[in-house]
């Protein structure tokens, strides 16, 4: 019985650690949008491209594939001729700097009634480090009204493990966004989201 309890505790700790290391996700939706009327989608021609880009990057293709998979899993179908809504996405990276202040480690005096010399302590110097932050945004736009109806954004650090496994990294980022998307095709009632 103790082994089972330990195993369950280990699994829960692993799940919490996985959640803590994932990207931060933010979503917003148009409260007036009737999600029950959306069943088909297509991508904007310029989805994921900067203004000067004339082609889809490998990262862009990975993201588009992951978004299509996520939408199709929710019952939506691709319709490039007459979609109900259009999908756009944007991936950007930015160099960030993180600074921590110096930390004073206090000393002690009079330990054991004067048997030892006091220790004055020391100051741990502050640190400055740089890292790359990645932001992936996914937008849904009503094709008829040209109004945005939903957006999801994932923000996280771009680590060496992310760079070494781009397929998995893109799928994970898109999955984290769609974990917060509460609709399925043809239904206006949101479904409960996993916590």
Strand content: 25-35%
Order of helices and strands: HEEHEEEEEEHH
Share of helix among residues?
Answer: 25-40%
Q: What summary fits the major beta sheet? A: 6 strands, mixed
Quote the average pLDDT.
76
Tally the beta strands: 8
Shape descriptor: elongated
Low-confidence stretches: 1-20
Quaternary structure of the protein: single chain
| Distinct helical segment count | 4
What structural category characterises the helix and strand content? Answer: alpha/beta
Rg calculated over all Cα atoms: 24 Å
* Alpha carbon gap, first and last residue: 28 Å
Q: Kindly report the spatial arrangement of strands forming the biggest sheet.
A: 1-8-7-4-2-3
Provide a descriptive summary of the structure in words.
By secondary structure, the chain is an alpha/beta fold. The protein is elongated. The chain has helices at 2-21, 58-73, 160-164, 166-178, and strands at 24-29, 40-43, 77-78, 85-100, 103-108, 119-124, 127-142, 148-157.
Provide a concise account of the structure shown:
With 195 residues, the protein is of the alpha/beta class. The protein has helices at 2-21, 58-73, 160-164, 166-178; strands at 24-29, 40-43, 77-78, 85-100, 103-108, 119-124, 127-142, 148-157. The chain has four helices and eight strands, in the order H-E-E-H-E-E-E-E-E-E-H-H.
Task: Chart the SSEs and their pairings.
Blueprint: H1 2-21, E1 24-29, E2 40-43, H2 58-73, E3 77-78, E4 85-100, E5 103-108, E6 119-124, E7 127-142, E8 148-157, H3 160-164, H4 166-178
Parallel strand pairs: 2-3, 2-4
Antiparallel strand pairs: 1-8, 4-7, 5-6, 7-8
Helix pairs in contact: 2-4
